[in-house]
Amino acid sequence: MAAMTQTVMAVLVQVWNLVRVTLVVPLLRLAIFLSLATTVMILVEKVFAGIVSLVVKIFSLKPEKRYRWEPMRPDLETGNLAYPMVLIQIPMYNEKEVYKLSIGAACCLDWPSDRMIIQVLDDSTDLTVKDLVKLECENWKSKGVNITYEVRNNRQGYKAGALKEGMKHDYVQECDYVAIFDADFQPESDFLMRTIPFLVYNPDIALVQARWKFVNADECMMTRIQEMSLNYHFKIEQEAGSSTFAFFGFNGTAGVWRIKAIDNAGGWKDRTTVEDMDLAVRAGLEGWKFVYVGDVHVKSELPSTFKAYRNQQHRWSCGPANLLKKMAMEIMKNEKVSIWKKFHMLYSFFFLGKIVIQTATFIFYCVVIPVSVLVPEVEIPQWGVVYIPTLITVCIILGTPRVHF
């Protein structure tokens, strides 16, 4: 019995050695080559974005210097008519904990009440929450705030469907711009005063995006790590995209759109889970410009549980890949934007920013490196395992110092 066992083990070892040499080693070497190549690509992209952000900071190239910007004031003859009509959309879904904060913040925006319409789009399935949200809207309406409470018969299209349905109401035709705030976002009172002028005085600008300010970043280690990652996204990535190509992905909230640009791009679509990015790409291909204003902050909350974080990351990871599949040919064939902007969209924005960073990093560190330990014929160079990842981390850390609000 023992001899038979030894024979079987010897055969298995021989088979493994054969498979390892003929199949595992070549595949692993190919995986290492691709992983190292993508790691270098990521480093180059991080350095480029960092340099752009540094130049913007050194030379104080704020959006107010690159675009025309003047404070909004009432006119002596027309009064508040000097202010454009603005629609505020607040999509909600069973937001029992934060609905008062978001509605209250929107109602307290420093803007003439007769030149602003607040639209609460409630898709809640919890009847108790719906009643509470409706009552809150009625309370503010009794105080003279122009606020409407809108519900649908179904949740088709989810957030994109709610925003699209909200744009169909007759009173929206009076509005030139729409500001969007998710239910857990609370803008500062001067939000419109600081963002709308970009749209008023620059007719080629479609979107003004503000920066998120995280009120629960110190809740746990997970929220702290998220804060660092998202701070880099805003401070470096979006600032670089805004400064070099006047394009970046809309974050779905804390931004103001020109309604004409939304219509020109085909409106809201629910074909992916990243409806905000979808709209931004389509508007960018129509030649519209985007502006990121990092000095304007909007309070928000980070997912503090693993389940909430996992759901968020799943949507952010799968949605862009699906959108790229749908729009890659459309981007390449587009004749309204420069070849450099199309390259930026396909390579930097989608391929590197949304796919490679998400998948290649996981495959390299969680699959390739552990498997290479079991295959002595394969060696990963030290610069690829230590030096380049360290440089990438340093770029992120230097670009996102801890900010205390």
Automatic annotation (TrEMBL):
Assigned EC number: 2.4.1.32
Keywords linked to the UniProt accession: Glycosyltransferase, Transferase
Keyword set includes Glycosyltransferase: yes
Catalytic class of the enzyme: transferase
Full protein name: Glucomannan 4-beta-mannosyltransferase protein
Organism: Dioscorea alata
